[in-house]
């Protein structure tokens, strides 16, 4: 049976993980090598130098491609390395339409690295896909979006964006990190490229940094692989092994993330010290109907705005948790709390942050897979400190 026909959990465990032909080892070996012996000059067994190819990495790439129902995957040394490769498809004078609620690292890369090279970025509200057409010019080449967004959980209609992109011959790239391939598959909705910070839910154990791009188009795969091999943002074999090991439990971890996330979101929504809860599972969340249509569940990412809290109050509460850890990143088995203004989104100017609700008293929660009763108790004591 073709592994692409397997259900998600079976693909997560088996795709790409062929037994070692020498020993029969069930786990993919870590090919810790920088180069490969050639039979004669230019004649090898498909491997010449490890920046270009590594068998451990290739096994992982097959695995991630299968999870996104894509034909090709390329892994990078970080999510930003993957994003950087997509931007290198562009040329001076090209324009990009992207969201106004964006991961701070992406905003920093777009404005500080690529804008000086003559690439123009339009940061707009993508929750209404009709807004896109207003910014399309003859120079537009790419739509870049996150959904749910980081950190206010805006939902973008991928299918509607794809229709517009196709009409104008644009590329549509979707950062699928918050959802993971377990909850959402943008290629099936018309996207050209899916980006993952594999550091997050794919790895799942806060012990590796990696990025990935998934696509169906052969030419696009060739272009992006050329960029990887030429520019060198390739991950090592140990990192590839760790992410592949993490993926084996992705489906059961995501089930627990979603279960815990729902219970905690519902608790926080009625808490007297919370002004606002951002979680796409609420029926009154903007574009909830779209989230329900394009996602299988609503995930474990939640953001909250503390009621009448000063910056000092926010710092005190953020530092008072016992089970949640105050740290950047997300998607690990452990619960994390993050203050975007001073951590993940510090590179975005205050005026721009506050336009989309990233205020001083906003905290972002990555709900882990601990016993939810302990997480609820921890929230209770921290919010009442």
Structural features, described:
The protein is of the alpha/beta class and 385 residues long. It folds into two domains: 7-247, Type I PLP-dependent aspartate aminotransferase-like (Major domain) (Aspartate Aminotransferase, domain 2), CATH 3.40.640; 250-383, Aspartate Aminotransferase, domain 1. 35% of the residues lie in helices and 15% in strands. It has 14 helices and twelve strands. The protein has helices at 8-14, 55-67, 79-87, 104-114, 130-133, 158-167, 180-183, 218-231, 237-247, 250-269, 288-294, 311-318, 350-355, 372-383; strands spanning 72-76, 95-99, 120-124, 140-146, 171-175, 193-197, 211-215, 274-278, 301-306, 325-326, 336-338, 362-366. Strands 1-7-6-5-4-2-3 form a seven-stranded mixed beta sheet, with helices on both faces. A five-stranded mixed beta sheet has the order 8-9-12-11-10, covered by helices on one side. Helix 6 (158-167) links the parallel strand 4 (140-146) and strand 5. Helix 1 (8-14) runs antiparallel to helix 2. The longest helix is centred in the C-terminal third of the chain and has 20 residues, at 250-269. The protein starts with 7 loop residues before the first helix and ends with a helix.
Count of β-strands = 12
Identify the CATH homologous superfamily of the largest domain: Type I PLP-dependent aspartate aminotransferase-like (Major domain)
Low-confidence stretches: none
Mean pLDDT: 96
The structure class reads: alpha/beta
Helix content: 25-40%
Question: What is the class of the largest domain in the CATH system?
Answer: Alpha Beta
User: SSE order in H/E notation?
Assistant: HHEHEHEHEHEHEEHHHEHEHEEHEH
**Major sheet:** 7 strands, mixed
Shape: globular
Identify the CATH architecture of the largest domain: 3-Layer(aba) Sandwich
Strand content: 15-25%
Number of helices: 14
